[in-house]
Write a structure and sequence with these properties.
Number of helices: 11
Helix content: 10-25%
Oligomer: single chain
Shape: globular
Strand order of the largest sheet: 1-4-21-7
């Protein structure tokens, strides 16, 4: 009996030590100093579980797959040679971005920037004239497709690649703003202005003009409260367009054909089989996607419409693939991040392949503007001329103070052209910068802090042309860099002379309501100038997955 009591006493002692240990502060395994302790400086280890799934997103578990052609190359472009690559886990929208979602973006942009920077709103507008054809009557779509409630759940079209990226940036800020409000950290402002609207990057850079409802407690003895930091894991990563590899991987949905590490059937479309009709007993014979079945047949015969859509269809139409994604074949083609080159699939890395890198870093300065605008501006202007933009503001309405109308010079870089009367007008080819966002610049060997001379993984900022369009891949490579820089005559891709390929040519993927079945294959590749748009081209957003590729607990 005595022995038994001793054993129980030891067990109680072990439990007590465990309880005390759980209450004690966690200590560094390399120094022994306690985390979250204001007596030793207050180095923090915030609690964190895993990445929250953002609104509208679906987690795509990554892996290896054969990217590229799975059908006969009927276009004879030879730009999608099959190659095995690996894609990391990521998030992507369940559906294409709808008209109603884009109208929410336009409404917010008009409300915040309309009074003082109306050009920002106008440049965000989709081009509704893409519906016009020389010998077709499509005026009803020009007038009604974007704004009529009958089309609110249909995919937005007429959006170019630059506008799609602006939408992603806006969505990032609004989602992170909502998270801070939800967590009780940010005061909800029903009517934000261009001075104090929430910007994630500006907030993290200490440039945001607004106010928090409350701050996080700090273990720094010199500062009992602090702002949210990236290290807290509260903010979600940026919404963005998916890369070509990510989009193609997500479209196939091969997770439904995997047993162990074996993919049992390679797919031609986002569903199994060689046909475009549903093969299940319940829905047998029904069309799986919205496309052109044959010459002049966009929706079938009255009484039995084969895809029940003359142009686009609502974003939740048809059957999702095995990842739960809708319309990865048909309805509208979709923009991706990549710059187009025919040999990218052969040249790009086998891990997370992508062409289009221009390495940047944040500008660091203390410039502030008259009237309280944030001095850090996101610069992504597409055009030849950069000028300061002078405009008039009315202080009582624009800045909330009394006084007469003043002229304000902002450091907002915008594209300007001069008309016949000498007046400056914003160029239709470019897009305005947005006040209140962090300004970025390309890394440069001329800036010592960029340390390019000491790096081996990259030496310059722009790698769009790398191995396919740069001096080493030009037929004039033996004439030296000087000959190659004469771009009008020496470039490998002589834009508008021998091809339509240049550094502004962006890839779009998937078939659309105007395409034949061949383009429903996710491996097909096409491209369009990033400043152009179409009535059959839309987009969906993506987001990087940080940490575990499958989530904790799996």
């Amino acid at each position: 009996m005595e022995i038994k009591w001793i054993k129980n006493r030891k067990a109680l002692a072990i439990i007590a030590l465990a309880v005390l240990g759980s209450c004690a502060q966690e200590r560094s395994p390399v120094t022994g100093w306690a985390y979250n302790d204001d007596t030793n400086g207050g180095f923090e280890k915030p609690p964190y579980e895993e990445q929250e799934t953002g609104p509208g997103l679906v987690l795509i578990e990554g892996g290896t797959f054969t990217m590229g052609r799975t059908e006969h190359d009927v276009t004879y472009e030879w730009n999608n040679v099959p190659r095995r690559v690996t894609v990391s886990s990521f998030y992507i929208d369940e559906t294409e971005v709808s008209n109603f979602s884009y109208l929410e973006y336009l409404w917010w942009t008009s409300r915040v920037f309309g009074p003082t920077f109306p050009d920002i709103y106008y440049k965000a507008l989709p081009d509704t004239l893409v519906w016009r054809e020389k010998l077709a009557y499509n005026e009803p779509y020009v007038e009604y497709y974007l704004r009529h409630p009958a089309y609110r759940d249909y995919p937005v079209v007429g959006v170019n690649w630059l506008q799609a990226n602006d939408f992603c940036a806006w969505r990032t800020d609004r989602v992170n703003e909502f998270i801070l409000i939800r967590e009780g950290l940010l005061e909800h402002v029903p009517t934000p202005s261009d001075q104090d609207y929430f910007s994630t990057e500006a907030y993290l850079a200490g440039k945001w003009q607004g106010q928090l409802k409350q701050k996080l407690p700090s273990f720094d003895p010199n500062a009992p409260e602090r702002d949210v930091k990236m290290e807290d894991g509260i903010f979600l990563p940026k919404y963005r367009l998916p890369t070509e590899a990510e989009w193609e991987y997500a479209a196939y949905g091969l997770i439904g054909n995997t047993i162990g590490e074996r993919i049992t059937d390679r797919r031609i479309y986002p569903w199994n089989g060689h046909g475009v009709r549903n093969a299940t007993d319940k829905y047998i014979g029904q069309i799986n996607a919205n496309f052109v079945r044959g010459a002049g047949d966009y929706m079938g015969t009255a009484g039995f419409l084969n895809d029940n859509a003359d142009v686009t269809a609502p974003v939740y139409s048809y059957w999702p693939n095995d990842y739960g994604l809708y319309n990865m074949a048909g309805n509208v083609s979709e923009w991706v991040m990549d710059v187009y080159r025919p040999n990218t699939l052969q040249d790009a890395d086998e891990f997370r392949p992508f062409r289009g890198n221009i390495f940047t870093t944040q500008k660091r300065d203390s410039t502030t503007l008259i009237g309280g605008y944030g001095g850090e501006i996101l610069t992504n202007v597409d055009g030849p001329i950069y000028q300061k933009f002078k405009h008039k503001v009315n202080p009582p309405t624009a800045h909330g103070v009394s006084g007469e109308t003043n002229e304000v010079i902002d450091s907002v870089l915008t594209i300007m052209t001069t008309d016949v009367n000498g007046n400056n007008n914003a160029s239709p080819e470019g897009k305005s910068d947005i006040p209140g966002r962090v300004q970025w610049r390309e890394v440069s060997s001329a800036v010592a802090t960029d340390n390019l001379d000491e790096r081996r993984n990259y030496k310059t900022a722009d790698y769009i042309n790398y191995m396919d369009g740069d001096v080493n891949s030009s037929i004039y490579y033996d004439q030296g860099e000087d000959a190659y820089t004469d771009k009008a005559d020496k470039m490998m891709y002589e834009y508008a002379k021998t091809s339509l390929v240049n550094d502004k040519s962006r890839v779009f993927k998937g078939g659309s309501w105007r395409d034949r079945a061949y383009f429903l294959n996710p491996g097909t590749r096409r491209y369009l100038d990033q400043r152009q748009s179409n009535a059959w081209l839309g987009f969906r957003c993506a987001m990087v997955r940080v940490g575990s590729p499958v989530g904790l607990g799996k």
